[in-house]
User: Fold this.
Amino acid sequence: MLELAIARVLYDDYPDFSEGRLAKIRSHVVSRASCAVVARELDLGSRLQERGGDLIPEEELQRLMKNRNVLAALLEASLAALFLQHGFHKIEQAIIEAFAGRIEYALTTHVDYKTELQEALARRGKSVSYSVLNAEGAPHDRTFTCAANVEGEQVGVGNGRSKKAAEQAAAKEVLAKLGIT
Assistant:
């Protein structure tokens, strides 16, 4: 229902956008990272603390309240509960309002460097692959370093809190070297 609400508002508000551009924007807006941002904005971590305080040790609860994946899952579960209780039409506008900032961000910021790089290289008859160069930190608090390899040659390196974020940073570096961004 999240994807449906976002797809509908994008389709209605941006009729001149290509299907591909709308799909990229929608994909970013409904991503785990965006869901976590909205969960933080709605202060769902504190609500988790209020409800789980007696069931979960405090140290673990504090860690969960800040975990991106937990926050995203909490938001998705909350939306599902609202849908079951009230139906799609009654919650659609609230979903759109909650994600308005993410829509604006996706419209004004380049958000998917990996796809952009893949498409740019495909036009040149080349391809990209990614490899993890390093992972540091405890399993719940890792930093990754990834390389973007074009035709087997390491062209860009990026760091991030997840493999995907590190790969995005590496792709961004390659795009800059190619003069695309």
